[in-house]
Amino acid sequence: MRAIVFEEFGGPEVLTLADVPEPRPGPGRITVDVAYAGINFADILARSIGYRVPELPFRPGLEVSGLVREVGEGVSGLTPGQEVAAFLDGGGYADVVEAPAAAVFAVPAGIDLRTAATLPSVLPTAYGLLHEVARLREGDTVLVQGAAGGVGTVAGQLARAGGASAVFGVVSSLDKAEHALKSGYDQVFTTDTFDREVLAATGGRGVDIALDPVGGETFSRTKAVVARFGRLVSFGNASGDEPWQVGPADVMPTALTVGGFSILGLAASDPELLRDIADRAFHTVTEGGVELPVSAEFTLEEAARAHVLVESRTSTGKLLIKVAG
């Protein structure tokens, strides 16, 4: 079967299409014939700096949709031929993948496999950030960094559906503002001026909830616009800057709560909790309140091109690799 592999860390050019053995499911696991694979920024970090890569060679790809191929011993509730979406610890850019059954979700009725591939990573992440960590409440004001990306596109819609009184987004360029404004955001600011503009939009008060996947200086500037008793949640360090340290002097004067979230960590440590969060998150899609538009689609052979687009920081929404069909 075909799979994208890299044997060293580096630029998109290290991604190669290889012929590899087809996996067979072990106990508690299944295999899936992949229809679509989602592309995430974590894939870029894995390829470039070895983020969460246990050893080389490594196959990138954290989420797929497709049909159950084979079911391992002890698996119940999943049958061959069933349409599923799966969250993986790697290997999604391939014809066939193996996954723990606890991280495989039946595709809800009315959702096609193309849409389903956008859900396993992004949707539970956005839902977990807002509802599990930040504890979104009716009337909260929300700020989301990376508002035009995959998580940002969904987070804006979830915040609006969850009763936020105002939702503000931050994008790297105004070219992305239109996309964000269609995703639940009231106002969209750019990275160079967002802190001043957020304070102006809130009458100097700041926001109740801020979500930050960027880290570094952006984290520090975001912290400065969180209101008293507010919640700031970090879920990445896309900037690559040195992580910003938080101490008592940073949080005590305004009773600030600082939290973090990693869906990869949750999948590894508590897959049953991930399933619970994912089930609730997927329900928001079937109700028609949330969608994640696919902005570009590639073949397996074009995986390197997809990574180039992601790293250009010009893409919006979700990028997919079409594997079958």
UniProtKB/TrEMBL annotation:
<feature type="domain" description="Enoyl reductase (ER)">
    <location>
        <begin position="10"/>
        <end position="321"/>
    </location>
</feature>
<dbReference type="InterPro" id="IPR013154">
    <property type="entry name" value="ADH-like_N"/>
</dbReference>
<dbReference type="Pfam" id="PF00107">
    <property type="entry name" value="ADH_zinc_N"/>
</dbReference>
<dbReference type="GO" id="GO:0008270">
    <property type="term" value="F:zinc ion binding"/>
</dbReference>
<dbReference type="GO" id="GO:0070402">
    <property type="term" value="F:NADPH binding"/>
</dbReference>
<keyword id="KW-0560">Oxidoreductase</keyword>
<dbReference type="GO" id="GO:0035925">
    <property type="term" value="F:mRNA 3'-UTR AU-rich region binding"/>
</dbReference>
<dbReference type="Pfam" id="PF08240">
    <property type="entry name" value="ADH_N"/>
</dbReference>
<dbReference type="InterPro" id="IPR002364">
    <property type="entry name" value="Quin_OxRdtase/zeta-crystal_CS"/>
</dbReference>
<dbReference type="InterPro" id="IPR020843">
    <property type="entry name" value="ER"/>
</dbReference>
<dbReference type="GO" id="GO:0005829">
    <property type="term" value="C:cytosol"/>
</dbReference>
<dbReference type="GO" id="GO:0003960">
    <property type="term" value="F:quinone reductase (NADPH) activity"/>
</dbReference>
<dbReference type="InterPro" id="IPR013149">
    <property type="entry name" value="ADH-like_C"/>
</dbReference>
<dbReference type="InterPro" id="IPR036291">
    <property type="entry name" value="NAD(P)-bd_dom_sf"/>
</dbReference>
<keyword id="KW-0521">NADP</keyword>
<dbReference type="InterPro" id="IPR011032">
    <property type="entry name" value="GroES-like_sf"/>
</dbReference>
<protein>
    <submittedName>
        <fullName>Putative quinone oxidoreductase</fullName>
    </submittedName>
</protein>
